[in-house]
Amino acid sequence: MGQGIGPGFIPAFKFVKFKLHGPYFKDLEGKGMPLLPRSPANRVIAAIFIVWMIAMNLQALGVIATSLEPWIGGIPFSLFFMWAFTALATIAGIAAYAIWGKEFEKNAERALKEA
Amino acid sequence: MIEISVAAMALIVVTAYMIATLIVGYYGYKRTKLDPVDYFLGGRTLGTFVLVMTFIATYASMWTFMGAVGANYRIGISFHQCMITWNTLWPLMLLVMGTRLWLLGNKYGYITPSEMFADYYDSKAMGIITSIVGLIALIPYMAIQLMGSGLAFEAVTGGAIPYWAGSLYVVIVIGLYTLIGGLRAVAWTDVLQGIFFLGFLWAVMIPWVILLTGGFAPVAAANPGILQAGRYAYGQWLGFVLTWGLSPLLPHMFQRCYMTKSPKVILRSAVLLFVLSAWIQSVPVALVGSLGVAIIPGLKGVAADQFIVMFTAKYSPLLGSVVVAAALAAGMSTLDSQLLSASSLVTRDIYVKYIRPKASELEEARVGQIFVLAITVVMWLLSLRTIAPLVVLGTAGAAICVAGYFFPAIGCLFWPRPGKIAALGGLLAGGAAALATFWTMPFGFHNAVWGFVVGGIVFLALAFVTPPPSPEKQRKFHGLFSRAIYGVE
Questions:
Q1: Is there a contact between A25 and B486 if contact means CB atoms under 8 Å apart?
Q2: pLDDT tens digit string along B53-62?
Q3: What is the DSSP letter of B220?
Q4: Is B207 contained in some domain?
Q5: ipTM computed for the complex
Q6: CB contact (8 A) between residue B487 and residue A52
Q7: How far is CA B437 from the centre of its chain?
Q8: Which of B10, B50, B204, B215, by CA, is between 20 and 30 Å from B130?
């Protein structure tokens, strides 16, 4: 990290990282607060959502998949593209529940009972 | 054979629907206790089916049934692309953000967003400003439901039932069951209304439109632009995606995260909404609107919002009346939730906090009912002028709240660094920027974008130079997430 950019980059990066996460609350593993628990599966799910969002932005900007051709099963390509990527995001959302849901239910009920 | 005028037919069909709504509302009223948790949150007892239906019915309003169909008519599937994007984003926000809101509401007993923010940031000012921003944002959003009702009656009867009479009729029914039945009446009527308007779109409108037009290919031959993507101005696209994609921050959606005690219910609701919102809601609206240019061409501006009513009334006055009832279902299911939410903001955050701190639970619930009535009257008066297409007005209003609430929510839910000064700065700057650019939308960027940019700059600048919340508050909130979400002891 920082290779080829200059020797000043690494201390600057560490300073910014300190300011972001700082001596403020962290979980007991000493890490910051991600959106979902860290795991390879959740990283894949996050990546799918990021790719989906980028694809939607590029299509909205008129950069990709704007035309009707080629028609796929009677649907214009522009519509097929947005439906295909959104289907992927929908599946990722369902997968997030399948992977993380039971764990959350168990931990949440326990956390709510604690004083 | 008895001849019935179109206006009379519309009144009969809509009145039958209103009676059904009042019966369901009465059922909710019988089970409502007059205390604030029961009146405003249904006692936190909603199950998955009711919570999902109240989420989707509250979210999909007159805006969806008439406004979004109108936008798809005017702009084509470029607008659908925007809509399906935000309709995937907000269930994701419910999964990530809603679960945290649910945890906090159940652990610490919050009823309104202001209570949560005021507690975390130890700031009375945060509480009252949050309420005021929420109310300012809800006003245009509520008004468009009544505007849509008036437009629907006027369209199906060719003006025989004037705009003001149609909206008055609707507001009286909504005011009645919301006032007496509270959240239980609202939630159960949402179930009825959601099934009605979504079922109508899928079972009647889609097959009918496809039959009349022949599908995409014939429409594309006459209007190729309607099926092209990338034709919606990006500044507007981004604003709509930000506003509606973060709609769990709107007060009436926010509070739905507090309406169940079960973690299973909140999680399953988020997952089911990925399918319901992105697909079941977005697709029929897109098909009806974008294919509709081949059925009734040439509608412009606000007139396009009446397309779905004009189209059905043209072929069948009876079906046109059913469409009006379905449109009213969409609008009423949102307006009743917004009315109750607005009443809770005024009752809990202003009346109980500053005027009558010693109010009993019964008094609080009664005052909540009075505010439902007062806000109903104000909304009807405000709705008497149609000043812009429904999607424009509703989105610009909601943007004020979303752009404001986003920053205190970030600190409260995800990032322990920003303290009350940063949160207040983000809330005020974001909300004010969105309000100031409501009509002007400089450089073509939606007011939501301005709210996020200006609010974000102020929030981040203050976050690094002002004190964070106290260690106790950080542990109270983020420690709970650490245990519940990451399973760390």
A1: no
A2: 999 988 888 7
A3: H
A4: yes
A5: 0.88
A6: no
A7: 21
A8: B50
